[in-house]
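Tokens in:
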């Protein structure tokens, strides 16, 4: 599909979008690039590889970086070298560090791509994966499981599974509330998310007050962490990641069309309502998977997509795939800082992303003050 379009609100106006056709005084249509910027793919790919290598080489356990590199090379088909690592060191590398790096990349890709997708759907540069009650629903469900203490109706339900279901439930409630008001636009859905989030957060607070002994464990999860018991955690997140991100990337051109407006999109044969529903469901599924794996890690869905826009332009044909790549690199790097800066202890990842994201959020708010409305 090749579509003449104006830039997305979040990227701001460009000189080309305000230029006039010679002699006729009409705006000249802007054509977004049909290919991904090569520079973005190269930079994002190199950054992800460097972050992944650093994540594998560094950690609380004192493993020789040279020996780790040799051990990795030994797994290349046709290569046989002895790294000198003992069985314990090999297990740390292959069953702890490497799965954690891959898990971090999946979580970062989910959160960043979902943030970019929400911003396109709602035409709001400050939209993020927590907009529709996903965080509040996951928080309430996780708190309920922890507070149950392995007894009652919630016995046997793990925190990740509860968080996944809770996140999807929060989004479903927000959608129902928004549509029940009679509104069909994005503003009704956003307001529904605000109302549902407030209600679910109140429920979580009530549970914490009645079960004070669970506060430490719950807040440890809320602040975000990447702890993995091996490749099984990676496999659980890989399925919703592949499904949801594939759907979002398939709609990247349609999001460019929707940025023009629903009336213009309809003239091009795009069903705006259906497209928005599909993208919101896919982004919510990706968010739920990330929350189940890592807890509530904020600001990734704002910092990464806007950084991509500043570097490579506002077309969603580029923003979505590059957000996936840069988001993976960002989360792997953030997790590396979290587990090494105060080793052998760990900082919550959410604290680090908040230190980075809060000033960036203020920057985006100031830069996009003319186009923040939903």
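Residues out:
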């Amino acid at each position: 599909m090749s579509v003449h379009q104006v830039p997305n609100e979040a990227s701001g106006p460009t000189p080309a979008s305000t230029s006039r056709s010679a002699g006729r005084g009409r705006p000249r249509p802007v054509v977004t690039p049909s290919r991904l910027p090569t520079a973005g793919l190269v930079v994002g790919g190199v950054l992800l590889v460097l972050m992944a290598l650093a994540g594998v080489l560094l950690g609380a356990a004192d493993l020789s970086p040279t020996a780790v590199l040799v051990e990795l090379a030994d797994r290349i088909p046709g290569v046989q070298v002895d790294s000198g690592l003992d069985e314990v060191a090999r297990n740390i590398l292959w069953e702890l560090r490497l799965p954690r790096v891959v898990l971090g990349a999946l979580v970062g890709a989910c959160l960043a791509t979902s943030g970019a997708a929400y911003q396109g759907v709602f035409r709001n540069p400050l939209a993020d994966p927590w907009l529709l009650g996903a965080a509040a629903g996951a928080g309430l469900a996780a708190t309920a499981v922890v507070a149950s203490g392995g007894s009652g109706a919630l016995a046997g339900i793990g925190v990740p599974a509860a968080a996944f279901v809770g996140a999807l439930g929060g989004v479903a409630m927000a959608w129902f509330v928004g549509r029940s008001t009679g509104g069909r636009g994005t503003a009704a859905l956003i307001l529904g998310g605000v109302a549902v989030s407030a209600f679910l957060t109140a429920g979580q607070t009530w549970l914490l007050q009645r079960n004070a002994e669970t506060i430490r464990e719950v807040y440890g999860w809320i602040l975000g962490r990447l702890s993995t018991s091996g490749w099984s955690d990676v496999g659980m997140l890989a399925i919703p990641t592949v499904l949801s991100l594939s759907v979002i990337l398939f709609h990247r051109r349609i999001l460019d069309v929707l940025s023009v407006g629903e009336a213009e999109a309809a003239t091009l044969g795009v069903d705006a309502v259906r497209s928005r529903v599909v993208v919101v469901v896919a982004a919510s599924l990706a968010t739920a998977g990330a929350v189940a794996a890592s807890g509530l890690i904020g600001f990734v869905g704002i910092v990464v997509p806007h950084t991509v826009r500043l570097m490579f332009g506002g077309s969603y044909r580029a923003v979505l795939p590059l957000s996936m790549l840069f988001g993976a690199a960002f989360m792997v790097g953030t997790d590396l800082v979290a587990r090494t800066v105060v080793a052998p202890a760990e900082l919550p990842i959410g604290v680090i992303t908040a230190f980075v994201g809060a000033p960036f959020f203020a920057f985006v708010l100031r830069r996009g003050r003319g186009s923040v409305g939903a």
